[in-house]
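Hi V.,

Quick status before I head out on leave. The structure for the redesign project is tokenized and pasted below; the design run finished overnight.
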């Protein structure tokens, strides 16, 4: 089966997908393959978080130091 890709965004209402008029021509009665790509809420949260002005760059040294501090604090707790 030779496939032609058509991409558009829409909102699903009551389980129905509205195909924009631009693409409706030639689809009546056609058998189509549908792939749904739902946005990940986590990815959206990452985008928002990364755009915050208080986000700082973290270096490898910062990460290493934080790990060492964590290990030191845990070693002294037991």
């Amino acid at each position: 089966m030779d496939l032609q890709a058509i991409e558009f965004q829409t909102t699903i209402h009551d389980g129905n997908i509205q195909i924009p008029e631009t693409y409706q021509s030639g689809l009546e009665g056609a058998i189509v393959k549908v792939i749904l790509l739902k946005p990940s809420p986590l990815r959206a949260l990452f985008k928002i978080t990364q755009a915050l002005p208080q986000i700082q760059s973290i270096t490898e040294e910062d990460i290493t130091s934080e790990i060492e501090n964590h290990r030191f604090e845990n070693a002294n707790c037991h």
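Above is the designed sequence. Residues 21-77 form one domain.

G. will cover questions while I'm gone.

Best,
W.
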